[in-house]
């Protein structure tokens, strides 16, 4: 209290305003004011959350000033706008990121300190919006950061899920899911724009008639109408004024209460519609690589897409432009096929509501959309049962039939009636039940199609989208993913950031290629020492977190082997654990064996309905229980499963990693982005030639990357020839022993049933060729362990990894999208814009 009284903000200088000023005094005053006027509290009774809110609102005020200026300048200047449609945004906490982008982290640190509050204590209070599953949602968040930083006019559209990705707990080694009630304490970063709302129809049927002018018309009579309300979050770029909008839609009932039903005594009916409508944006589907084919999911996709298109058309028409010129003002990027229904919706709006002729509507549509594919896994390619689709979107089904009919007419000529090709290109799939292929709809309706890493794009061209590539090669390009260095270095690794900046200045934060200048210090013993000193400090921080979260004590001097990502068979967390078991058995055989002490750190969520992935989590924890507590091991090996992997936890884990585990079966991981974040933080990669690993290895140099395993070509060949995992099991003694132990219950209190499905799957199917890559993995890990013992050379390799990561900034990716696909230009935003 005394401290607070001492530090009561002084008079501000004339040019400073408590709502916009960036000085320590102005910030103190703002926090103070908000505590009083927004939270309605005084210091003695204020809670930690009150202080967090007061600071968050102080920061938001500063964003609002820039946000209003950006919107005004975009509209006044009639600039082309990028619209990013994504069902997921995995944003992570806003506060620290906004402090960095505003350039006031230090000032706020001082302001809070002078108020007697610890900034970190407030930062840790923020509940992150987990509105995404993994890589795809996080990529959307990185791209929003880069769009703003590069001063590109852009809007991100998505869904304001009331419950985001579930929270993961580990109980008795198993994953247990809990709901993520992220809005429970309010969200200071969003502004509800209740006046911005659109109606969205669902279900029902379509009437056809000929109007007075003899024109054929369709009238969709819905079963239900839902209202979408806009919630806007400002996205500020790094040290620029540009503040773009992330507009997320919440579903509501057009009227919240049916009085007629209520009066006639039917209370349930009266509230029912409200519940049905609100359900649409209630919860994020927690599947990242499988499609569930559920009605609600289709409703979600259509709901946000329809609101977003109506919103864009509104913006366009308000500018006084003709609907036919929509594509001049907007470029729309489809983040995977989740929003691909936008193509049919655009046609519906243009033809049914704005009266355009079909050919004109199709011209506008196909000049507006571009599509990013994120996966080669067949189970992740979205299809909808035609009947189910028609029950939700009867008018769109008709439109898709028409799009397909016209499209196939053209195609038939081009492919000389080759039926296989026609079937593969058709938007409607034939079979016992017909289905709609969303990737084909996206390809037909877009002017550009891209993959997310060089290998992925090549594989798209030669496999999944082969016939599309033959048909329209000019649409295809590669846009290798990237990650924002603001969050993934500056924010999560401030010590490394200072060390880097002490040598090469700060402009690398916006121009990541400049990290290359660090190469000059890679051999400098003093710099190496400082570099590894930072790593050690970050490892100690992680040790504490792990101790708090799991009770496991780990050694910061050990090699941190870090495998963090969604749990999936193709990502092969089980290959990693087989390696752990092999090392454990070596120690058991010879307790005095010389072995590099290692900590295996895993983190990641499994889709709740994905049994095998959940079993893998249980296996990791079971092996951990034995290994961590066996006295023979003498703490030389530790296995940790860090629960509830999310953006905040990732920010603590990446800086502490020594070895980045990127061991997916070649040809399965489209790109990966964790691989980039880890390497940027100075971890060395052990990986297969998969996704963006290929390009990471190219830039960091093969001598600074531990490569193992089959190539994508070899995987395909082996599969074709008939892969026999059992042969590999018999061949390698260490592998056989590890699998036998799992099967016999060695790690599960002699219960030999728990892991039966997992073991059988590996021995008799092994779809992701874990056994085929085991020997190569173990040998490669031996090389990595040896390399880790040579501290100087490891430090050099680590520095070179960071130094050569310039390519993997999301700024580079966004620049490529802007130049090659969207054809948009930067607009610099000035704060002196007057009304
Ligand atoms: O998208 C992913 C990820 N699971 O979200 N795909 N999808 N869908 C890929 O599997 C990753 O390889 C990729 O990095 C990411 C973003 O493109």
Automatic annotation (TrEMBL):
<dbReference type="InterPro" id="IPR000811">
    <property type="entry name" value="Glyco_trans_35"/>
</dbReference>
<feature type="modified residue" description="N6-(pyridoxal phosphate)lysine">
    <location>
        <position position="677"/>
    </location>
</feature>
<keyword id="KW-0663">Pyridoxal phosphate</keyword>
<dbReference type="GO" id="GO:0030170">
    <property type="term" value="F:pyridoxal phosphate binding"/>
</dbReference>
<dbReference type="GO" id="GO:0008184">
    <property type="term" value="F:glycogen phosphorylase activity"/>
</dbReference>
<dbReference type="GO" id="GO:0005980">
    <property type="term" value="P:glycogen catabolic process"/>
</dbReference>
<comment type="function">
    <text>Allosteric enzyme that catalyzes the rate-limiting step in glycogen catabolism, the phosphorolytic cleavage of glycogen to produce glucose-1-phosphate, and plays a central role in maintaining cellular and organismal glucose homeostasis.</text>
</comment>
<comment type="function">
    <text>Phosphorylase is an important allosteric enzyme in carbohydrate metabolism. Enzymes from different sources differ in their regulatory mechanisms and in their natural substrates. However, all known phosphorylases share catalytic and structural properties.</text>
</comment>
<dbReference type="GO" id="GO:0005737">
    <property type="term" value="C:cytoplasm"/>
</dbReference>
<feature type="region of interest" description="Disordered">
    <location>
        <begin position="1"/>
        <end position="17"/>
    </location>
</feature>
<dbReference type="InterPro" id="IPR035090">
    <property type="entry name" value="Pyridoxal_P_attach_site"/>
</dbReference>
<keyword id="KW-0119">Carbohydrate metabolism</keyword>
<keyword id="KW-0328">Glycosyltransferase</keyword>
<dbReference type="InterPro" id="IPR011833">
    <property type="entry name" value="Glycg_phsphrylas"/>
</dbReference>
<keyword id="KW-0808">Transferase</keyword>
<feature type="compositionally biased region" description="Basic and acidic residues">
    <location>
        <begin position="1"/>
        <end position="8"/>
    </location>
</feature>
<protein>
    <recommendedName>
        <fullName>Alpha-1,4 glucan phosphorylase</fullName>
        <ecNumber>2.4.1.1</ecNumber>
    </recommendedName>
</protein>
<dbReference type="Pfam" id="PF00343">
    <property type="entry name" value="Phosphorylase"/>
</dbReference>
<keyword id="KW-0321">Glycogen metabolism</keyword>
<comment type="similarity">
    <text>Belongs to the glycogen phosphorylase family.</text>
</comment>
